[in-house]
Model the fold of this input.
Amino acid sequence: MARRQWSSGGVAVAAVLAVMSVLCAGHPVVPGGHGGGFPLQPHFYDHSCPQMQAIVGAIVAKAHAEDPRMAASLLRMHFHDCFVQGCDASVLLDADGSGRFVTEKRSNPNKDSLRGFEVIDEIKAAIEHACPHVVSCADIVAVAARDSVVLTGGPGWEVPLGRRDSLTASLSGSNNLIPAPNDTLPTIIGKFANQGLDVVDLVALSGGHTIGDSRCVSFRQRLYGQNNNGQVDRTLNPAYAAELRGRCPRSGGDQNLFALDPISQFRFDNQYYHNILAMNGLLSSDEILLTQGRETMELVHLYAANQGLFFEHFAKSMVKMGNISPLTGSAGEIRMNCRRVNHF
Done:
């Protein structure tokens, strides 16, 4: 089996390879997070709520059948949750009326774009009916993301479980910690490194853009220049740029949606990397993987040539991302309603 051999700044990441060897050996047992060091592990609910994953899977499948965009939305939700305070379902919280925090739903990365909350609500209600006050919203989001990838043809993986839910949210964290479409490659690498993720994780997880959409406002500068001078980004295929300009004008149309991978928009595959090689990456943060770094460029070429390896690395990186600072043990709580804490 191919091994991951790249790291940020050319520094070997022996620890990542060690984790991979554990994952390849059998069920992943992931080190615990805050609150006592209890490990996350795939069989956490086997006795307390054995039907948990079946319930999540059934409702995600129904949502996907009704709206093919939902798979990408639920995957994105997991990313945006884990990059802020860890994988603790803070992204689901509405404003609580107490002024203790501002909901992350108002942040620049999430406002008018993050969706799927009603699907999580439906899952939570069904699980609370079957297993009251047992399963966390954070674990529901993690399993829903995995199921969304599988439903669209991507790889599966065992999701380590046992996360608990946060009592607060962070608007500033959401605004500052989530990689932005216009960030430079060093900035994006730094934001991943802050979460314990390396360059392999960055390029593999970016492959999640093989499904889903982006808004005109997120890539307009590539079509009309950073200073609105009308100059197309030199790393964007001119023919593709002309096509995009047809529905993404110089002003207005901010919310117009465009497929991140127009060739196979609803299929999880490695076409995303072929698009980048053809200078058809929609976002600047996609195309710079090819143009601004040797290690990232090598990985783009590798994943374009080997879908199986991309799937393998993506699954392992999702497990790794899902272990960013989870609340475990007595930390946090098991929310009854994913949109609010149990008690003010």
